[in-house]
Amino acid sequence: MTTSLTAPRASARPPVESRRKVRESLGERVAPYAYVAPFFLIFGIFGLFPLLFTFYVALFDWNPVAAHTFVGFDNFSRLFDDPRFWNALWNTISIWILSTVPQLLIALGLAHLLNHARLRLATLFRMSMLVPYITSVAATTVVFAQLFDRDYGLLNWLLHLVGAGPVDFVQSTWGSQIMIATMVIWRWTGYTTLLYLASLQAISRDIYEAASVDGAGSWKQFRHITIPSLRPVIVFTIVTSTIGGLQIFTEPLLVSRSAPMTCGPVRQCQTLTLFLFEQGFGQFKFGYGAAIGVTLFVLVVAFALLNFLLSTRIRREKP
Amino acid sequence: MRVRLGFAVAAVAALVVAGCSSNGSGSADQKSFDFWSFSGINQKAAVEEYQKKHPDIHVKLTEVGSSVETAQALTTALAGGKVPDLVLIQGDDMPKFVEQPQNFVDLRTLGADDVKKDYLDWVWSQSVAKDGSVLGIPTDVGGLAIAYRKDLFAAAKLPTDRDAVSKLWPTWDKFIEVGKQYKATTGKAFLDNAGTSVFYQAVQQGDMKYYDADRNLAYDHSPQVKRAFDYGLTAAQAGITAKLSSFTEAWSAGMTKGDFAAVAAPSWMLGSIRTNAPTTKGKWDIATIPGGAGNWGGSYLAIPKNAKNPKAAWDYIKEMQSPQSQLAHYVSSGSLPSTPSVYKDPKLTSFKDPFFSNAPTGTIYTNSLLGLKPFYIGPDSSAIGQEFLNAITNVEQGKGDPAKAWDTALQNIKTAIGK
């Protein structure tokens, strides 16, 4: 940047004009910062400040409408002794695994199908992938809650047809977690598929054709061409879905209308973010809530680092 | 370039200023005021009536959401500084705010002492802080009763007349027996759930709930709580419930479809039944609650400290919560008055609710308040109640071990409230 800006100064010019030039280049030097300033300003106000403030609040017994008492790291030591925290952590991880693994596998398969050369109405199918993504989570949850309803749900009606007893999805641990994972899968699979598809489109068709000529079937092509060339984007989706999975909130909140913010009488589907919300905005324990937030932040960073380490290793591997 | 840069800075500054100044929505004319209520309690009717009498005053009513959501919004508002002039707080949420009297106008400074005598003293005392300041005026109370479906009772060969039905269950044990009988005859569930319809009712009947008279925690040794918990467990294990948690969509659907024949109905619940299951009009009736007098719920009107127009808000409270106004509000929307002087008023005693087979709800509910022994509701009452309820629900769902339920509940309460 600086080199291109200082370059004109080297040329000999009349003094007046060169001063104007200098002033202009000063403006030009500042301009880029001005252009990016709004982002950093807004990030500072809505991103960085709340983050730092959360760290600060986590050190206090902070009731929003009363005194704030400094307690140091008490909130954290209490948190690690709190069975509800470990329960929420475990739920979060289990819902994340239940949703991410099938989601990425389905997306891989779909992307491979959509990339097929002889697919008719390809654009229509590709567009339809995004429909779940643009649907509001609240609307999705209402529909899924009805599908999974114990007494009048479609799923239990189908189970009844094949002679199986009704399952109380919302009230059982696995049922509620599978229900939430299904919502996540439904919402994000199309999005991930399109990411994969975009990468696939970058691969030359010649490779597939050459493979066909060599007698490689669809499955072999999938294994030996599609997957290796998608490696970077697969890593990317794993990272993003890990971060998203750790922060899952709306679905469990809306599923648990009966026991507000606990996702069932024994917190069977309460995630970390929901636990944070319950403590902060349900019990007004902002300090404790902030401590959960900080812990969650550390967890997300740790998982992202772990992902990064694994992914660089995977990327280095030769296909 | 510099011009553009200046423009960008100005635009950002304008944004920031706009963000800061947006809390200046209060009224300058000293006559209008902001009023936050929760939904489902029909404060709109009261506001409209007030506006009719005082066309020069503008009341800006906001129905924030459920009572819990309204309390959350109020907390955020108190912490942030932009508060309404008047706010409706549900009885269960009140203790948390009473702990922090500095956030509210002491209504004695506006003349609360003059109207104190009009209200039930035990309801009034729940909005009095430790320093003696009065933070809220009670708008209604929640007398207890049981709503039951006459058609389903008839199908189960049970009596349908409300006096005969009331005689079926003088105690909770008898109530559960009737439930078993109903289940045996029809094969269907008798009650919506054990947590709210049994435990939450029974725990309100007596003089010591989760705190003792000296405001110390007593949930683990209060005989009233243990007894109520056992009734809840018995009902849960008896298999007489539809296992539908109160106030959920499935609960409303079950109510419409007749999935249960009876539900505990504090006076404010009648409105929920009307709106949730409008097609069941005339099929319901009201019987007395087993176990005697009790109260669940009710609300208070309070004025936050930083209100822009506390005087206008107080004028509204004084006029709309007077005994006569509460009586009028009762006739129009069914909130049971917190002013005992109107309990013998013919307008109340002769009131019959057509939705509930013309049951004399005024008499039934005010009778359920007679002989009530008031108990202290503390800042953690709501959290404690929820954990007990969760333990019973877990047994009801067939997952929790009933023998361990009580200990589990105590353990969870200790974790939840930290003591």
UniProtKB/TrEMBL annotation, chain A:
<keyword id="KW-0472">Membrane</keyword>
<dbReference type="Pfam" id="PF00528">
    <property type="entry name" value="BPD_transp_1"/>
</dbReference>
<dbReference type="InterPro" id="IPR000515">
    <property type="entry name" value="MetI-like"/>
</dbReference>
<dbReference type="InterPro" id="IPR035906">
    <property type="entry name" value="MetI-like_sf"/>
</dbReference>
<keyword id="KW-1003">Cell membrane</keyword>
<feature type="domain" description="ABC transmembrane type-1">
    <location>
        <begin position="89"/>
        <end position="307"/>
    </location>
</feature>
<feature type="transmembrane region" description="Helical">
    <location>
        <begin position="286"/>
        <end position="310"/>
    </location>
</feature>
<keyword id="KW-1133">Transmembrane helix</keyword>
<dbReference type="InterPro" id="IPR051393">
    <property type="entry name" value="ABC_transporter_permease"/>
</dbReference>
<feature type="transmembrane region" description="Helical">
    <location>
        <begin position="127"/>
        <end position="148"/>
    </location>
</feature>
<feature type="transmembrane region" description="Helical">
    <location>
        <begin position="93"/>
        <end position="115"/>
    </location>
</feature>
<feature type="transmembrane region" description="Helical">
    <location>
        <begin position="33"/>
        <end position="59"/>
    </location>
</feature>
<protein>
    <submittedName>
        <fullName>Cellobiose transport system permease protein</fullName>
    </submittedName>
</protein>
<keyword id="KW-0812">Transmembrane</keyword>
<feature type="transmembrane region" description="Helical">
    <location>
        <begin position="178"/>
        <end position="198"/>
    </location>
</feature>
<dbReference type="GO" id="GO:0055085">
    <property type="term" value="P:transmembrane transport"/>
</dbReference>
<dbReference type="GO" id="GO:0005886">
    <property type="term" value="C:plasma membrane"/>
</dbReference>
<keyword id="KW-0813">Transport</keyword>
<feature type="transmembrane region" description="Helical">
    <location>
        <begin position="230"/>
        <end position="249"/>
    </location>
</feature>
<comment type="similarity">
    <text>Belongs to the binding-protein-dependent transport system permease family.</text>
</comment>
UniProtKB/TrEMBL annotation, chain B:
<protein>
    <submittedName>
        <fullName>Carbohydrate ABC transporter substrate-binding protein (CUT1 family)</fullName>
    </submittedName>
</protein>
<dbReference type="Pfam" id="PF13416">
    <property type="entry name" value="SBP_bac_8"/>
</dbReference>
<dbReference type="InterPro" id="IPR006059">
    <property type="entry name" value="SBP"/>
</dbReference>
<dbReference type="InterPro" id="IPR050490">
    <property type="entry name" value="Bact_solute-bd_prot1"/>
</dbReference>
<feature type="signal peptide">
    <location>
        <begin position="1"/>
        <end position="18"/>
    </location>
</feature>
<keyword id="KW-0732">Signal</keyword>
